[in-house]
Write the structure tokens for this entry.
Amino acid sequence: MTQLKIVVVGAAGRMGQTLIRQVAETEGCVLSGATEPDGAPAIGRDAGVVAGVGELGVPISTDPLPLIAQAQAVLDFTAPAAAVTHAGLCAQARIVHVIGTTGFSAAEEDKISAAARHATIVKAGNMSLGVNLIAQLTRQVAQLLDPDFDIEIVEMHHRHKVDAPSGTALLLGQAAADGRGVDLDAVADRGRDGITGARQPGHIGFAALRGGGVVGEHSVLFAAEDEIIALSHRAFDRSIFARGAVHAAKWGQDRAPGLYSMADVLGFSGD
């Protein structure tokens, strides 16, 4: 059987190590490359040893170009600027790029879209089945409920997370906006402080909590005068995101270049 050659970028980080373990455990997949930025302590070390799965014969490198040129997929949970660079390299190689990175600017989003003309890019704020199912339910509930229901999205992550709201919270907010047929940017309330006045009818609120080692908790609240409907998801281990990312890499092998979401991968989009 031909093995799917996968490169993990940001290999020594918490998510990178989880991805390496998942690749090593997945039948039909093999870790063919691993990278870290210049100056990282793990440079030159075996990626499998760093991830705790034993030697894989893959030293961690600083140069993704030759690794991506010989791979079939890249798993990327790094930072926006790095992910944009990797997208360009995947476009040159015409391979699959799975992006779990969040916090992109509008200009960076445009560069990702441009790269998707030649690369098969699966980009999602969250790779787990559960979260994407919650997003589908959020869209349906927002569509069915009376507009008098206020929508609030509450998320909590570990103290090291650098962007807010989280990519998952924005994914859920977009689902709610789609259900209501509105532009999320026009109705999003991302922060409240001081004398803000009464809540704007039809707006979608976001609250971001940070602390401890929380992997990820998200709730969508539909609040009326006399009742609240809540859709919630809690992640206890990063492996759920890694499993989704590897599944996306395998799914992308049969797809034309383009920009896809986990809804496409999981069949929620009707594809």
